[in-house]
């Protein structure tokens, strides 16, 4: 076997001999040396890369040299090209003969216009004699490089365009046939290598179409009538995946975009007839991409061709119903990308319908890959031209939910939840000012969201716990109806939707609904005051207010109905919502309604909170604060007084004496109410009728003190007494008319009792630091406390007792606490625990002493 080095040497040697013969005008000898070099290209066993290298070397060293000589000799009449052309036809081997004929024919075309057509026909016919794939492709490649460029010269302008196009088309068709045949040459084991070879030389095929485009120039009518039909026919006829894909792409690339816009229907129709193994989505995507790149200068938009693509999709579904989803979904996505924009999403519903019918109407296999494609399609992640932001998602969810909803229902439970969660999250977490203007948009959002609340098994998707409440809040915030009735209707619709969909979400969503109902109550009252002169109008909105409170009561009842016995958070939330609603009704002088909600709060407190593992003191104080703010209940029926007494009774039901004592002392505030602004149907006014009952205050404090004194734990007992002392000082400060019966004698007795308790604590001190504490509270620098009492019997660290002592205000004990670094603890050493009431008592005494300088009444208090 001859080596590559030897072949290259032989070609170069023949090139030298050609140049030497032509230098001496020995044309026939030069032709013989060219033919000898060309014989190397006859071999079928040369690897393709080497074959191309030898072809290039022969062209450079032999054929190009001969061509240049013939061109110059023709100008000086040294040779007769007609005679040379005839002599070459007697060359023994067909392949060298054809190469030489093409070389001479190129020169003949330039110098003999009368023979051009005949020469071209003769060359086209003779090249059919070489049918070996490699040899035939490179022979036609030689024609493309030598004959076709002549068509673009001035001399060939007069030649019929149809003839030039036909010549190139014939060369392309033959070249394409040989290119396809190459794959099936030789043994089966060589098939993979032949496929690679086809990839390497495919540019030769594309070159034919590029030259055709150059010759055709801008003659779009010629392209539509003669060129494209033949190209489409060749695409369909060859039935080869690689050829169809590459040639289609070359057609789209080499011809102007204006040609494709005029023939887009023909191109799309051709894709329906291609090999079914070819990815149609890739072809159409390339078509869309090519048109998009060059469409700007035509002052049109691809969206204008929506109907063409829509008809194409329907035709595709009819002709290829078995088209796999891996091909159909990307195709659908690409076409949808040009059919919609951020402002116009109306026609997107048709694409959802088409995909739904395909999934529903045929036995399409859906695997992991298809599920991934469906997921990306339904969250619009592959849309390139459309900006998929929260506005786009919002319009999709509110205007095209019919088929989109049906498509979602076909997805697996997990994928379904991820899709809806992604879209809804983008919408509800948006900073954009999205507006809901109609109830139909609300219904669409609720319909889509309902998929997250249940599935075929009646379970809800986990992501719904976070998303659904946000969706409801988003609806309330974005709904701009302009009328009270519409807002009322939407609120009730959402309430019923949650109740009918999944009871597990009542606790999470109903607070938002209740808040919306509160807003509507306020709107009613504003309207009622605005039109107070119209009795019928006022009565109508007064009735509406009462109806709203009934709905609130039902909502709270539903929350308690679904809340479990151990669901402390839900029960506490319902309890506080009852109190807030009662306070709201009181503001508008709706006494009966306010009383009813307070009673329901009391029932909840007595049945589910008292004697259970709740923070009973805190919840009872919330009730006390709510009651204390009311003023409309203080009427002839003594509603307020009855509720206050019931509050004291409930405080007395607490299990531990220390909690009873704290709760009862807090109840004393119920009989010492200040001015609160209230709203009635006719005006806003301040209620100056205070509810003050000093006798009741004294009873509460005395009962609380007795309970504190009976607590066995001296530390806890002294702590409660100190709290009572602080409350007494508050009444002493604010009671200018001595209405509370809390005078200096009572305070002196209480201080004396506390001093005795503190003294007993000092006896318990076991360390030197605490044993030397003086009763007047003077502490040395080394006697510094580290803790104060916190919420829930916890202890909070403080930096320095001296810093706290520097405050003149008893109620500013936390002034010097680093709130960002608070770490409450439940357990302390006995010494630290004892020191807490001692240091607190010290601060109170200092406060009393400081008040004596500005308030003479404090001089009667003995410390």
Automatic annotation (TrEMBL):
Signal peptide: none annotated. PANTHER family: VACUOLAR PROTEIN SORTING-ASSOCIATED PROTEIN 35, VACUOLAR SORTING PROTEIN 35. Belongs to the VPS35 family. It is found in: Membrane. Keywords: Membrane, Protein transport, Transport. GO terms for cellular component: cytosol; late endosome; retromer, cargo-selective complex. Plays a role in vesicular protein sorting. Transmembrane segments: none annotated. The keyword tRNA-binding does not apply. InterPro entries: Vps35, Vps35_C. The keyword Protein transport applies. Gene3D superfamilies: Vacuolar protein sorting-associated protein 35, helical subcomplex Vps35-C (1.25.40.660). This is Vacuolar protein sorting-associated protein 35. The lineage of its organism: Eukaryota, Fungi, Dikarya, Ascomycota, Saccharomycotina. It is a peripheral membrane protein. It comes from Tetrapisispora phaffii (strain ATCC 24235 / CBS 4417 / NBRC 1672 / NRRL Y-8282 / UCD 70-5) (Yeast). GO terms for biological process: intracellular protein transport; retrograde transport, endosome to Golgi.
């Amino acid at each position: 076997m001859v080596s590559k080095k030897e072949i290259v040497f032989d070609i170069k040697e023949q090139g030298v001999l050609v140049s030497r013969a032509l230098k001496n005008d020995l044309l026939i000898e030069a032709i013989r040396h060219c033919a000898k070099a060309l014989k190397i290209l006859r071999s079928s066993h040369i690897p393709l890369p080497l074959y191309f290298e030898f072809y290039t070397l022969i062209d450079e060293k032999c054929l190009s040299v001969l061509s240049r000589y013939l061109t110059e000799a023709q100008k000086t009449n040294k040779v007769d090209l007609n005679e040379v052309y005839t002599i070459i036809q007697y060359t023994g081997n067909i392949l060298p003969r054809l190469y030489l004929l093409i070389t001479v024919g190129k020169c003949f075309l330039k110098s003999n216009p009368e023979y051009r057509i005949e020469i071209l026909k003769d060359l086209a016919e003779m090249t059919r004699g070489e049918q070996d794939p490699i040899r035939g492709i490179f022979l036609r490649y030689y024609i493309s490089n030598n004959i076709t460029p002549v068509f673009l010269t001035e001399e060939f302008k007069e030649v019929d365009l149809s003839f030039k196009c036909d010549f190139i088309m014939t060369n392309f068709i033959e070249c394409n046939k040989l290119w396809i045949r190459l794959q099936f040459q030789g043994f089966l084991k060589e098939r993979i290598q032949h496929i690679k070879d086809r990839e390497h030389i495919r540019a030769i095929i594309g070159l034919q179409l590029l030259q055709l485009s150059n010759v055709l120039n801008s003659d779009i009518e010629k392209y539509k009538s003669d060129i494209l039909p033949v190209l489409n026919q060749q695409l369909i006829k060859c039935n080869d995946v690689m050829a169809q894909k590459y040639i289609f792409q070359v057609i789209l690339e080499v011809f102007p975009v204006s040609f494709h816009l005029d023939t887009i229907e023909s191109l799309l129709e051709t894709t329906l007839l291609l090999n079914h193994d070819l990815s149609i989505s890739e072809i159409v995507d390339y078509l869309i991409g090519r048109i998009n790149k060059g469409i700007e200068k035509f002052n049109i938009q691809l969206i204008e061709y929506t109907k063409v693509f829509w008809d194409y999709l329907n035709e595709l579904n009819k002709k290829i119903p078995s088209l796999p989803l891996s091909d159909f979904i990307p195709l659908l996505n690409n076409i949808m990308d040009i059919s919609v924009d951020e402002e116009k999403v109306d026609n997107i519903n048709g694409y959802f319908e088409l995909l739904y019918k395909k999934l529903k109407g045929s036995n399409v296999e859906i695997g992991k890959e298809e599920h991934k494609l469906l997921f990306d399609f339904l969250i619009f992640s592959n849309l390139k031209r459309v900006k998929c932001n929260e506005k786009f998602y919002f319009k999709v969810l509110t205007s095209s939910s019919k088929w989109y909803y049906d498509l979602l229902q076909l997805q697996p439970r997990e994928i379904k939840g991820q899709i809806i969660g992604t879209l809804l999250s983008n919408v509800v977490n948006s900073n954009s000012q999205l507006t809901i203007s109609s109830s139909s948009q609300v219904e669409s959002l609720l319909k889509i969201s309902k998929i997250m609340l249940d599935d075929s098994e009646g379970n809800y998707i986990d992501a719904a716990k976070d998303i659904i409440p946000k969706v409801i809040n988003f609806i309330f915030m974005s709904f701009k109806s302009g009328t009270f009735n519409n807002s009322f209707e939407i609120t009730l619709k959402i309430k019923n939707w949650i109740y009918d969909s999944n009871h597990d979400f009542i606790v999470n969503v109903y607070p938002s609904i209740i808040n919306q109902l509160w807003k509507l109550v306020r709107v009613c009252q504003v309207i009622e005051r605005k039109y107070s002169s119209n009795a019928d109008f006022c009565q109508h909105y007064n009735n509406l207010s009462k109806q709203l409170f009934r709905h609130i009561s039902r909502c709270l009842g539903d929350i308690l109905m679904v809340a479990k016995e151990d669901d402390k958070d839900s029960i506490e939330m319902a309890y506080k919502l009852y109190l807030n609603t009662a306070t709201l009704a009181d503001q508008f002088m709706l006494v009966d309604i306010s009383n009813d909600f307070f009673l329901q709060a009391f029932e909840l407190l007595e049945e589910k909170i008292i004697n259970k593992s709740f923070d009973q003191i805190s919840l009872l104080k919330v009730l006390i604060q709510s009651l204390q703010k009311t003023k409309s209940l203080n009427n002839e029926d003594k509603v307020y007084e009855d509720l206050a007494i019931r509050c004291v009774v409930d405080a007395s039901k607490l299990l531990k004496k220390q909690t009873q004592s704290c709760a009862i002392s807090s109840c004393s505030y119920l009989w010492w109410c200040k001015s609160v602004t209230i709203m009635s149907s006719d005006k806003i006014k301040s209620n100056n009728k205070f509810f003050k009952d000093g006798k009741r205050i004294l009873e509460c404090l005395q009962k609380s003190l007795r309970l504190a004194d009976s607590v066995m734990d001296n530390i806890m007992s002294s702590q409660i007494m100190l709290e009572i002392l602080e409350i007494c000082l508050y009444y002493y400060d604010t009671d200018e008319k001595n209405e509370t019966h809390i005078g200096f004698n009572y305070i002196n007795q209480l201080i004396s009792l506390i001093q005795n308790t503190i003294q007993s604590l000092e006896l318990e001190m076991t360390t030197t630091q605490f044993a030397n504490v003086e009763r007047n509270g003077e502490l040395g620098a080394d006697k510094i406390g580290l803790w104060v009492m916190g919420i829930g019997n916890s202890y909070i660290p403080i930096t320095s007792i001296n810093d706290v002592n520097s405050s003149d205000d008893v109620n500013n004990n936390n002034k010097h606490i680093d709130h960002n670094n608070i770490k409450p603890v439940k357990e302390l050493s006995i010494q630290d625990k004892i020191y807490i009431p001692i240091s607190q008592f010290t601060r109170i005494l200092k406060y009393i002493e400081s008040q004596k300088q500005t308030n003479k009444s404090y001089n009667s208090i003995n410390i």
